[in-house]
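Notes from hallway chat w/ T.B., transcribed later so I don't forget. T.B. wanted the structure written out for a chain they're using in a teaching module, and asked if we could keep both sequence and structure tokens in one place. Agreed to drop them here.
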Amino acid sequence: MMNRLWVRISLAIMVVVIFATLLPMVVGIAVREFRYQGEPLTLPPERPDLAELTPEERQAYLAERRPFPGKFVLDNIASLLVSVTILGVSVGAILSHGLSAPLSRLAEAARAIGDRNLSQRVEISGTQEVREVATAFNEMAATLEQAEILRRNLLADVAHELRTPLSILQGNLQAILDDVFQLDKSEIARLFDQTRQLARLVDDLGDLAQAEAHQLPIQKLPVDMAALVSRERETYAAMAEVAGITFQTHCHANTPTILGDGDRLAQCLGNLLTNAFRHTPPGGSVTVSLASDPQWLTLQVQDSGMGIAPEHLPHIFDRFYRTDPARSRASGGTGLGLAITRALITAHGGEIEAQSPGTGLGSTFRIRLPLPHPESS
């Protein structure tokens, strides 16, 4: 019972009220007694009959009628204590209810969160400190709910992505066992392609999980981004030629060097180029350019392909997100390339954004990487 907030507040208020009430009374009695002892004995003017008494008789008479200093307190202490107790308990209960009610709601909401009811929120009320705690609790609950939604979506997406190649493998192997398909090299090649798809998905999921957990090893060394773009151009030149796409790069000779992991940055550029070539029809163009300012190096990949609708732009870097759900896994990839790219760029302290005027008008992906400070170079 003593651990209840309203009981402690009531007792504290009661003690304060009692102390504040009795202290002035006791001090007043003590002062009056001190002053009375120092005054000469005189007869009240309304009692002239006492003038005939001797000094000793007058002393005895006045002593008998001198009020006891604590007589008033003794006569009224019971009713005073009862009144103060009732007042203290009432005021304490009223005040403590306003303080403890929000805390009780917080406790109930916390127990609901513990029972996996992540939609639980609390009313923001009470003092400023309690309101701040309630706001922080609601923010925490919203973050947990969003994380749970992402976890469920990830599990569903992974299961969905694994189901397709596994079904193909299982079906083809069953057909081979039933002598429907002949086990020749062409069939083995198809099965091998499905295992490569599975391996790629597993590798991408591992990279994404490590990057988002800030556990992906990043070795930051001086990187010449102009040279990196030049190497990637040679790698993707044949792909662009086969697809009938014009592939250009624009890099200045004095492009500054950054600190980063060259292999991971090449992976990011490769993901953007693969995405650009996949969504650009024959006759289109893909352009890579570099620019810099005193603080940032900007890498831009622009294409004239199918573009991105405005409603898709906020989700373009989400896991397994495809602007065209009808695209197959073979033609649409695993749906993790852009998510991995964002995680890697974030791990480098950079930023990435996607822009598009609309469907059929091409798209632009822009990466901004921080330049090293002069004293650190």
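Follow-up for T.B.: Residues 38-43, 326-331 have pLDDT under 50 and may be disordered. Might be a good example for the class.
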